[in-house]
């Protein structure tokens, strides 16, 4: 899809990390947008900065795990701007620990945000996109964890695997209808963000996986800058690419996983992640 000035974007998880970087690219490209996030203080700080720069935008507190709030987000975007050309289902959380030690409520929370949040976004926005007289594109933020599993990340990996499958199915559904709506799935590896700080503050059970938390935190701290990820995303939209990867060195691990499937043998953690 050609990205043009004055198009309209909706971004969830917009007040930090990749979401914030997407906001800044939209602002630089004179794309109008609605920035949605669960944190009002972060949104207010973001909006203050954008107003200082005369950036056309709206903000909305939105918990994407609540379908009524996602509907309200779509209502706001369409009532204020009349169309949505870019939908970034980006909000996500991480909970880690041994699969049997993560509580049922934790599993449900991660699935509700990371997977159902995108489902609710698709449910509310796609019918309106189909009815509007302009092209659109949807980007779902998954992860390399949506393609490769690892220990201590059951809820997160399961939700991101589900999101990859949803994205593929959505692409096929839209193609079958001849819709002028593109789909991409973003599968980043480590990206510098505060996701670990956010989850650690919410649930003490995460400290049971202390060494993994340290490993993840170090990787995230030293990860790719969100602004670089956002530029990759916009380039992929303009090219009409479905897959968006940030770290191509993962591909040997994915090939090893695929070979274990073809050869009908058990996947080997060391083989997949240490090649």
UniProtKB/TrEMBL annotation:
Swiss-Prot/TrEMBL keywords: Oxidoreductase
Pfam families named among the record's database cross-references: adh_short
Superkingdom: Bacteria
InterPro entries according to UniProt: KR_dom, NAD(P)-bd_dom_sf, SDR_fam
One Gene Ontology MF term: oxidoreductase activity
Ketoreductase domain: residues covered: 7-194
Membership in a protein family: Belongs to the short-chain dehydrogenases/reductases (SDR) family.
Alphabetical list of PANTHER family matching this protein: BLL7251 PROTEIN, RETINOL DEHYDROGENASE-RELATED
The protein's name: Ketoreductase domain-containing protein
